[in-house]
Amino acid sequence: MRTITRPRLAIIALASATTLALAACSGGDSEPAADSSSDSTVEVTDMAGNTVELPSDPSSVAVTDNHAFQILDDWGVELSAAPLDLMSEDVVSYPGNSDIANLGNHREPDLEALVNADPDVVINGYRYSSHAEDIKNLLPEDTAFINLDQPEDMPLDEYLRESTNLLGEIFGHEEDAEKLVGDFDASLDRARESYNGEDTVMGIITSGGDINYAAPGEGRAIGPVFDWLDLTPALEQEGSENHQGDDVSVEAIAGSNPDWLLVMDRDAAVSDDDSEYSAAEDLIKNSEALASVPAVEKNQIDYMPKDFYVHEDIILYTEFLDSMADSFEQAE
């Protein structure tokens, strides 16, 4: 299966019409074979384990899961509907495309716009997970519905691989998907090998001018990295997947005396144009409590990509792992 853009569809239609015209002029008795390519389908198993049959060349695709946006944009996949408010213009080109129906955001989704887009394929998940049943009920029964949600019992790294390969199957980009997975694994291995196994590491999330704790294994975005690389936590306290981090005092963070800080600047993705926005780098630099910890003194701080909070996809995780590997290697 291949991703076919609208201009290419027009070319295929013109070529088919030309073939039929030539056959009619030939004067032969035989009729041309029917072109069944438009009726071809592909069968995939989505992340919920559902077997879904969908058109091999869908004419209208709606996607709501942020993990997929950058991948599909890089592959040149055209969308008919998506929550453009949940995308970063610095990461993907979709927000500037007036042909895409804007579904708004997950808090106040514009499902009427989705219905009007008349999708034959819907790829749903992440922030739109709670709207799955509403979407199914609003669309015709023959609409292919793909659940891209991370299963509760599936580790994040496995999910990133599996969901990327699923997108490759859907859009005929299997080799591109394999490359993304291969790049992710290579970066993960490199970061794991470059970490000395002894330095202590602290994950933090900055939001609303505050410095918050991201628990190893659990904390939003950063937590899973501890398990992937077998990092030694500077502080082991129960946390959550709260998008703003957990309420642990800066003094407690400093008291754990971390050798490294891993940082997600949540507001960089959603409020960087706000006059009251404070960048994570400035918050850390201006914190008296953190001034004497080794990570700050040695500038051993790794920041996740600016728009990570919005997309959190395999591409941005690969970029972050490469950055960590660079830092660990330079510190040796």
Give your account of this protein's structure:
The protein is an alpha/beta fold and 332 residues long. The chain has two domains: 123 residues, Nitrogenase molybdenum iron protein domain (Rossmann fold, 3-Layer(aba) Sandwich), CATH 3.40.50.1980; 152 residues, Nitrogenase molybdenum iron protein domain (Rossmann fold). It is 39% helix and 15% strand. It contains 13 helices and twelve strands. The chain is globular. It starts with 5 loop residues before the first helix and ends with a helix.
The CATH homologous superfamily of the largest domain is termed Nitrogenase molybdenum iron protein domain
What amount of the residues lies in strands?
5-15%
Q: What is the 3D form?
A: globular
Secondary structure: helix percent: 25-40%
Spans of 5+ residues with little confidence (pLDDT < 50)? Answer: 1-37, 239-246
Question: How many domains make up the 3D coordinates?
Answer: 2
Please identify, by name, the CATH architecture of the largest domain: 3-Layer(aba) Sandwich
How would you sum up the major sheet?
5 strands, mixed
Identify the notable features of this structure and list them briefly:
Rossmann fold, alpha/beta, three-stranded parallel beta sheet, single chain
